[in-house]
Amino acid sequence: MPTIDVELTQTQSVAWEKLEDKSTNEILYGGGVFGGKTFLGCLWIITMALNYDESRWLIGRSKLKNLKQTTLATFFDVCKLLNLKPVEHFNYNAQNGEISFYNDSVIILKDLFLYPSDPNFDSLGSLEVSGAFIDECNQCVRKAVEVVKSRIRYKLKEFNIIPKMLMSCNPAKNWVFTEFFKPYEDNVLTDDKAFIQALISDNPHADPEYIKSLHKMDEASKQRLLYGNWRYDSDPTKLFEYDSIIDMWSNNYTEKGTMYITADIARLGEDKTVIYVWSGWQLIHALSFGKKPLDYTHEQLQRLSKEYRVQQHNIIVDEDGVGGGLVDFGNYTGFVNNSKAKMKTNYANLKSQCYFEIAKMVNNGEIAIKFTDSEIKSKLIEDLEQIRDWNSDKDEKIRVIPKDKIKEMTGRSTDYSDPFMMRMYFVLVPPPKTMKIKGLM
Fold it and tell me: Which of 139, 157, 148, 168 is nearest to 44 (CA)?
């Protein structure tokens, strides 16, 4: 086989070390454009396919059409650089989406888009591969990545390798942010994962004219694609301003008031029950735990009710799903997400109305948060950043992005922002005032 030495950039070399170790299973190589992401992925997959006879590998992307137009073009460039010739060293079967090498190794090209007809990615079937490269993984839902990860099991023991998946992406506020960039930034990324920031400035082969064109882009695109800024987001459909979200922990002018408790109840295995205690518009206490029996959750609500002197009618619980049983259990106020909006507004449902209205308060600096739990704080910030105006360009009622769409992007439900949103219920539906009848004490 012809060989040639390939010179890697410094960041590519760091990533290559992770690809060769015996402890890292998932490597995210991301940042701005032209940082050599796709080149690295193709080089690694080709190298592994050639080093291990009769092995199987996967290159995936959200849409197969884009994979063939972009990723595959880089793949063939890398083959040319390595002096690998079609027919003599490899064959590309466009119809089957497979690239086979002279040593009987195969690279399988896969479409990883979430189609409504295949929500569980059954199209991947009984596929088994020895490793995978997912290009522009931020365009894929987390479930697609998890399914591919579960398929990395082909001849691993025979090859003496561990499951390894390389992913590339540009900055995005979805699961790549919450599962890789944020833990990396906080220095809590687990040993089985690695994040390597790659920028165009790391690439000595970048065209200066192309760099000039990047400087002429709109500010949001320039921040993301040129500077690899993971926190810059100018999405006009976002309800909550990031700076205003952060400011809630430093707002010191919001007064205490009537006590309330808002609670979102865990439905599925990985969901969380999240309970907030409020004094007026100060969020003063937060509690979260995994799925528990209703009597346990009821006990926690009663404990907090007693500790903070919260009247029963000022405790509101998400009534959808298992929460409905809890409402009956404790005679709490029930919150039905898809119920009719209040006061004859143009909101599609109560949930949308509460999110839009409380977002106005957050952006105006009218809410303060006093709890200090760092994990709940992080999750609440992440959830609020995902809340968007859904289909705002269409002539229909105002609504927020559906929960299942957020789960596709982040890999989890909005367990932390939903009870936050529910606080607005007590403004839209205030408790009835006690009537004073003349002559009665």
Answer: 168
| Cα–Cα distance for residue pair 59/5, rounded to 1 Å | 23
Place of tokens 């199209």: 123
> In whole angstroms, how large is the CA radius of gyration of the chain?
26
**348 φ, ψ to 5°?**
-70, -30
197-242 pLDDT tens trace: 988 887 777 778 878 887 877 676 787 778 788 877 667 788 998 8
Q: Can you give 353-378 as a three-state secondary structure string?
A: HHHHHHHHHHHCCCCEECCCCHHHHH
What is the phi/psi pair of residue 199, to 5°?
-120, 160
Note the pLDDT of residue 207.
Answer: 78
Residues in the chain: 441
10-226 is a CATH 3.40.50.300 domain: yes
User: Regarding the domain delimited by 242-428, which CATH topology (the fold level of the hierarchy) does it fall under?
Assistant: Nucleotidyltransferase; domain 5 (3.30.420)
The answer to whether 119 and 111 are in contact (CB under 8 A) is no
Predicted TM-score of the model (pTM) = 0.66
Planar angle of CA 178, 180, 182, nearest 5 degrees: 55
What does the alpha-carbon distance between residue 126 and residue 69 come to, in Å, rounded to a whole number? 27
Longest Cα pair distance anywhere in the chain, in angstroms?
Answer: 103
pLDDT (tens digit, 9 = 90+) per residue, 346-360? 899 999 999 999 999
Q: Any idea where the domains of the chain sit in the sequence? A: 10-226, 242-428
Per-residue pLDDT reduced to its tens digit, 378-401:
889 889 988 999 876 665 788 999
Query: Which regions of 90-210 does DSSP assign to beta strands (E)?
Result: 90-93, 98-101, 106-111, 131-134, 165-169, 193-198
Cβ of 388: how many Cβ atoms within 10 Å? 18
pLDDT at 441: 44
Rounded to an integer, what distance in angstroms lies between the CA atom of residue 132 and that of residue 154? 11
By three-state DSSP, how is residue 248 classified? coil
Buried b (16+ CB within 10 A) or exposed e, 420-431: bbbbbbbeeeee
- The tokens of 258 are what? 């009537």
